[in-house]
Q: What sequence folds into this?
């Protein structure tokens, strides 16, 4: 099939909406209900797209439909096109109303304590009418939202590999440090070696996360078992409440702990764990004016935090 057939006027925006909705709903009946049209109209529209492409986009099953090997990439691109159109329409509307727009950013733990809040504060001081929407989620969830066009960018730990449609920009390196509350008995002890800390309760990241794997590697290298008394948690609110109210020890990005007066960093070295913190965004989409403004402030704050980290490292050097 020649790609020109998709540009000769036969493929309509309604076809892209239809295909994306069928994929979201899982059945033609539910897709028809969501679009407020009849099922025959949905069936006819899907047939038109499949005839134009010359391949089936969905496999018909007894209880619904599922995308074929041809349908999956087409659906992903259809969603991207629709997201771009929504953004274009929103930008026109905002320009008409005299507003500067909205930027939607996702975040998870690293970067959420200092980098992102400081960048937002600087952005709002410069553009008070610009709306910033912050969405928190796990890294894999945020990545899917980014690919679907529901986020302009994400801020947090950079991954070792990302889908080809995404690009990453490192803003600073942030060490992972062991943390306990002020007044924790560990601060009165003579040794804060990892072997001495195992007897305390711990908070660990959940399994199958990068930080969990890195912490397990540290314990293995020291020839130590994982703490038997531990809670596994990724919720920052729950984690911090446990930290300040009990005797647990946790591994956190340094900037989360250094800015919290109720927490104190332990001198226990974790030199092998060091996070690259930065921005992830779509490589094939130019950022909106609002997203570009936030990126500028993120880069400025990232440079400041990088310098702070270097000074902190020099201060800890023997």
A:
């Amino acid at each position: 099939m020649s790609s020109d057939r998709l540009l000769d006027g036969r493929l309509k925006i309604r076809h892209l909406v239809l295909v994306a909705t069928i994929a979201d709903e899982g059945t033609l009946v539910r897709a028809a209900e969501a679009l407020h049209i009849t099922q025959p109209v949905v069936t006819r529209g899907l047939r038109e797209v499949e005839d134009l492409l010359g391949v089936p986009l969905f496999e018909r099953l007894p209880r619904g439909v599922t995308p074929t090997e041809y349908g999956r990439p087409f659906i992903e691109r259809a969603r991207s096109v629709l997201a771009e159109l929504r953004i274009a329409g929103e930008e026109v509307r905002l320009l008409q109303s005299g507003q500067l727009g909205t930027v939607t950013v996702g975040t998870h733990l690293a970067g959420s304590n200092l980098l992102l809040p400081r960048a937002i504060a600087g952005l709002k001081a410069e553009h008070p009418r610009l709306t910033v929407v912050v969405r928190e989620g796990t890294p894999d969830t945020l990545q899917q939202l980014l690919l679907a066009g529901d986020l302009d960018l994400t801020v947090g730990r950079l991954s070792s590999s990302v889908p080809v449609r995404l690009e990453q920009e490192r803003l600073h390196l942030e060490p992972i440090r062991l943390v306990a509350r002020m007044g924790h008995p560990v601060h009165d002890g003579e040794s804060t070696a990892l072997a001495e800390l195992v007897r305390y309760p711990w908070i660990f990241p959940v399994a199958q996360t990068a930080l969990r794997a890195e912490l397990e590697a540290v314990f293995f290298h020291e020839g130590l078992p994982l703490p038997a008394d531990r809670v596994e948690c990724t919720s920052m609110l729950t984690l911090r409440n446990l930290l300040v109210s009990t005797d647990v020890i946790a591994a956190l990005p340094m900037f989360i702990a250094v800015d919290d007066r109720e927490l104190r960093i332990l001198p226990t070295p974790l030199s092998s764990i060091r996070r690259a913190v930065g921005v992830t965004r779509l490589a094939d989409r130019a950022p909106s004016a609002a997203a570009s403004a936030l990126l500028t402030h993120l880069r400025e704050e990232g440079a400041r935090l990088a310098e702070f980290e270097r000074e902190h490292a020099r201060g800890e050097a023997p």
Remarks:
- The mean pLDDT is 87.
- DSSP finds eleven helices and eleven strands in the chain.
- The first helix runs from residue 13 to 25.
